[in-house]
# Entry
Amino acid sequence: MFHKKTIRDVDIKGQTVLVRTDFNVPLQLDPDTNEQLVASNLRIRESLPTIQYLLKHQAAKIVLISHLGRPDGKRDQKLSLGLVAQELAEILPGTPVNFVDDVSGPEVEMAVEDLPEGGILLLENLRFSPHEEGNSESFAQEIVDSTHADLFVQDGFAVVHRAHASTVAITRLIPSVAGLLLEKEVITLTKVLESPNRPLVVVIGGAKVADKQPLIDEFLPIADQVFVGGKIAADGYEASNDKVYVAEDFDETETGEKLDIGPVSTTKLIEMIQSAATVLWCGVLGKVEDAAYATSSTILAKFLGEHPVIESIVCGGDTAGFVVQLREDDLSLHYTLISTGGGAALELLTHQDLPGLDGLESA
# Structure
């Protein structure tokens, strides 16, 4: 099911390992200090199995690279990864975690040289350079030369659908394998496509039919039932297949704007998933940023989280963020996978190319 080499397949000991993580975390302003804070460290925590494996197997030095936000190839201090380095250091007490505000050049070379054995170094935001999204091989080569990396590990599942320097070009330069997060995401999502535990219920929400129609088309032959809610349903989505149930009632504003699915549809949804073995959920069911219209999404998230016997896979940036926030308020909630990659998950589930995965060494 996973046909690429992983860090388990190579000798780590004594190596300088360059890891492409996805630390594109949401930020928020501290109301007291007006300083930026990491609003959710899910993506940082999801990188820990790979980092801890490398530490346990005696990698000499671990160099992490990532992007944050969309600085459009320009340096923007508000999108510096220095904040993420601080968060990572707090999560890994006792492990040296350093940061350097560049991705190549003499400062990076010196920072790698000064890094103690078993230490971690996070480089600055890759997208401060236009060459990252340009998939520049010379940019990738500068990173490799400056870090003296022996091995590249792709663990940023959320970016493997992008042909960037840190996903594609770099794999042409040094041995390249998958990290444990990338492996977990691909295996879990592929299983839903190829051999799901049944009954399989697919829950589709969100706002854009264009984004979700390919997913509906993909799963119609596979799923036992498909539930369509969210703005897609509110805008009048129609389906002729008996497998598909489209939300039929809505919670509305005084002006008639439909901002959440209603109690009849929510009850129908819970009836569907009560007997499910697998639930794939992609897209929130209402305007969840307004608590008044987060009712159906909250009911669904809590039901799945309170029934770990159901294999639950949560996809999509807004959906994952919503579920993560709920789980932070209630640590007893459990999900099989909260995917870290919105676009990457959708593209994998609809059989599109993942260039950042294709470039890794085959098993």
In short: The radius of gyration is 21 Å. Residues 30 and 36 are 6 Å apart (CA to CA). DSSP finds 14 helices and 16 strands in the chain.
